[in-house]
Design a protein that fits this description.
Largest sheet: 4 strands, antiparallel
Structural class: alpha+beta
Distance between the termini: 117 Å
Radius of gyration: 43 Å
CATH architecture of the largest domain: Sandwich
């Protein structure tokens, strides 16, 4: 009988030690699970904490930092008096590793998608979903920026979510890559327009820089290509339009020089006014020069007849591919 009593006492001591080793309630009302020295109202040591209800669970797991998760797929931060809470953090990261993705495709018509979205400035209603009923909090008077979920859903249904409180929510992070691609698309348009503007500016500058040469005779008039020659200088010589024009391989530029003792040359410029070639005319009489297309890049050029440091005439020539 004594042996049986010893066995029962020993078993009770073992159960007591095991139970209190797994769950400890202190005199201060602190509860420890896995620790005999809890230092909070609920202290779970060496493991995770799970709160479950109707098959849905919420877990806090202190491993490589602290992980918070749910087997239901979403975690909503709200309470009875003020359903939706504010979350503050230094940074938020969204998992985006390439190894986790499949069916990766470019975004079609990003600019068109963004153009359909309408940003708004608003206040939340004073009701039980967002703010406490009959709230006197200053937060009820705060304005915010955002979108209307129902409008976004008609354009980007993938980023709109129906919450358990029967209100819609938007994944605002998903709009960022669409904005990036839309910006790049618009920059391509801007760059293309800038190139057209630069090209027109060069051509306009070329025409304006030659405006001092206008008139083809002493009375003042236009040459056959639209450029004018300065009055009183055409008696020194004459410049002809190159033939053929446009050209690809070779073109001929004819000229006339009335003063055999004059110093003369033909200068070729690009449309930005940069001197490309300077051809001295040794025989100061009527003559011609040949220009090979492979000496210059395809494009538009200006060539001028200079006699005694005076610009007699300027004309355009075009080299094709």
């Amino acid at each position: 009988m004594k042996t049986l009593n010893y066995i029962v006492i020993g078993l009770m001591l073992t159960i007591n030690q095991f139970a209190f080793g797994q769950l400890k309630i202190t005199n201060q009302g602190f509860v420890g699970a896995g620790t005999n020295t809890p230092w909070e109202r609920l202290h779970v040591a060496s493991g995770s904490a799970i709160i479950a209800n109707n098959g849905r669970s919420f877990r806090i797991y202190p491993w490589i930092g602290v992980s918070i998760g749910s087997n239901y797929g979403t975690i909503s931060c709200w309470e009875i008096d003020s359903k939706w809470n504010q979350i503050n953090a230094k940074k938020f990261y969204k998992v985006s590793d390439a190894s986790l993705k499949t069916d990766v495709m470019p975004i079609d018509n990003p600019s068109q998608l963004i153009s359909q979205l309408s940003g708004v400035y608003f206040r939340y209603k004073n009701d039980s979903v967002v703010l406490p009923i009959n709230s006197t909090s200053s937060s009820s008077n705060e304005y915010d920026y955002g979108f209307i979920a129902q409008e976004v859903e008609s354009i980007l249904p993938e980023i709109v979510y129906n919450t358990e409180l029967n209100v819609k929510a938007i994944d605002y992070n998903a709009i960022t890559p669409i904005l990036v691609e839309a910006f790049k698309q618009q920059m391509n348009v801007v760059d293309s327009l800038q190139q057209q503007i630069d090209s027109l500016t060069i051509k306009l500058d070329g025409c304006c820089n030659s405006s001092s040469l206008r008139t083809s005779n002493n009375t003042g008039g236009e040459s056959n290509d639209g450029f004018l020659i300065e009055n009183g200088t055409n008696n020194l010589g004459k410049l002809f339009q190159n033939q053929p024009n446009p050209f690809k391989e070779t073109t001929i530029i004819k000229y006339e020089i009335n003063d055999v003792n004059a110093t003369a040359q033909i200068m070729i410029f690009d449309m930005q006014g940069t001197l490309i070639k300077n051809i001295s005319l040794i025989k100061n009489t009527n003559g011609s020069i040949s220009i090979n297309g492979n000496e210059l890049k395809p494009g538009m050029y200006l060539y001028s007849l200079i006699i005694n440091n005076k610009e007699i005439d300027t004309k355009r020539m075009i080299i094709t591919d």
